[in-house]
Amino acid sequence: MQDILTAFTSGSYFYFLIVVGIFAIGDFFGILSKAKVSSVFVALFLFLIGFLTNVLPANIIELAGLSEFGSLSAGLLIFHMGTMINLKQLAEEWRTVLTAVVSMFVVMLACLAVAPIVGVKSAIVAIPVLNGGIVSTQIMSGAASEIGLAIPAALGVVLYAIKKFAGSYPASFFGVREAKDVLADYRSKQKKVLTPSEEESMQADLQKNIGFADRNNKYFTDFVCVAIAVFFAWIAVSLGTVTPINYSIWALLFGAVMSYTKLVPNKILEKGKASGLLSMLVFATIVPSLANISVADLLSLGLSTILLIGVSLIALYIVFYLLPGWKLTKTKNLAMGIAMGQFLGFPATFLISNEIAKAVTDDPEEQEIILEHIMPAYVVAGLSTVTTLSIVIAGVFVNFL
Length: 401
Prior knowledge:
globular, mainly alpha, single chain, 78% helix
């Protein structure tokens, strides 16, 4: 009997089932609540509870055989996202980058404001962590540990895990409000009946947009699409090692250029029927960080964590919703979503964009309209803060420890 039980509760497939099951539960509640409760939040919360209660092994992602595949998937998925943004749209996202940068400074000032309460060293560690991701967390917590600052070092790890919870709900909430406005505007325009001359002009524009990928659509099979994504991910990662530009920026630019010139299909991994699986694999790479947190850590560092994140969120709301800071971008709701990018980063911004579209409408065409509006802003916000600028900020602030 014991042998039978062991056979069913060990091996990669068993742990893979658990991981996928938790992601599925997150999706279920995301759709059920119409994105009021983020699927990202639910999934990360379940993993955290599982780790704290020892129900889930700390290395479950490794046991499921997903660690290496998850790392490889990031470059492919970023290239895929690039094929969803043409160069004109990318140029228009300068407002997103500016808004994201301002939001980082808002968080910085908020953390410094509570430094007398949480401690100056803790505030210094917190700033790059809240602005960024795992790299900036490693820089700050690692440096703090080396010089004997145990509490600030632990705070950095806790903040890194908890901040995703704090950012996912506002990003989803304000994203849904923005999506509803976009959808209402789209539906009102759809009611307009085109004249014969307008219809003819629209058809002419469509003909102009037909490129190499459209004319040779039948050759872009599942494997061809995946192979193209792997090729450009390889080039991007290679360039990332020999240039100061992060590989994710290269991958995003390659995707945008190839899509804009019509050399590859838009949403290439969707055409290759691989985007869903790769999204899950990339998401899996951020799960292990939750396994490093204990109940004792949460209790001892809870006050500082709540205070730093709470003050940061309040400051962002004041600047980008109550004050005219939202004018840097299009709307108040979108500005708040962009400001949350530093709490989430990639792939969470990508996942939340998708769940927002699915929660607001079941119509695929309407979902695409929402994604075209929200996803570029959310993704660029996450990449510009977490992937790039936060590392620079960490490099500066580490000198103040």
